[in-house]
């Protein structure tokens, strides 16, 4: 009797436990009310309400409603669990559990841009961020096209040709692959330079596009000139031919008169050297020669009936006596030398201007002119 009561109690506890398990949420299932998101698909094929919504193969919600939008696209409303965090720019795609399994909606962060914001109640995912995926029918149709359209035979031909091409050339192909690897490595090392060149080319293309009208006007302006040159093609050809003949004649003249030309140039060398030495004096001399007998600035001194002049008068005794008595003045008798005689250009007389100071200075004033005259034959 006691054993029967224990068995009945055990059965009651097991039934209660099983009933409690039925009310517990499954892992990855729906939790709470969640938030609703609208998704726009071009085609949902056989997706139906209450289909699952997954993130990384984990169920996080379900499809609530499928309608047709005003743009004749499918508008799918889903509900996602509150504890699921997705960026506002998330993407959606239709996937299939297996080859013949059911459809479900897959949510994921964006792959071509950085995640931004947070997906919340009332948000929508536009058509540009959705994907339908390949259907089984499309895959089987492509396979059938390859099998029935002679695709296998074409693949066989390609394989045969490749085998014939590579036969006996394994070493060359290996070397080619090595060179290709070196080339690709070099390109990878110069990646930044290539990008910079492409950016510069893009900027140049943009500048040319901005100046499209100016370039068009320039081409339109060139067209008449090109037309004129085309009409004068014969004359231009004759001129070029004549220029060639002139060059031949000039070459003959230079070859025949080469020595004479060199001699003339050598004779001109001293003249040219003197012209170079003259420097700025040569053009000044030409300017003065053109105004002979009056200097160029004489017009600035004439005012009405009189002339303005500036005179510099040097009244030093040496210059006055030198200009009066000549370059070498008359000498006087030297009192210290009884044999000296005054006057003349010979004898031991002293200079009346410098006196005996010149002897004390060792000829520093007048130099050694007397000694040079005595030594002269």
From TrEMBL:
Comp. bias intervals (Acidic residues): 367-377
Any one Pfam family match given in the protein's UniProt record, by short name: MlaD
NCBIfam families, A to Z: Mtu_fam_mce
Domain Mce/MlaD: 33-110
UniProt-annotated stretches for the region Disordered: 109-128, 327-377
GO cellular component: extracellular region
UniProt keyword terms in alphabetical order: Signal
Signal peptide: 1-24
Segments forming domain Mammalian cell entry C-terminal: 118-282
InterPro entries: Mce, Mce/MlaD, Mce_C, MlaD_Phospholipid_Transporter
Name of the protein in question: Virulence factor Mce family protein
Record's compositionally biased regions (Low complexity): 351-360
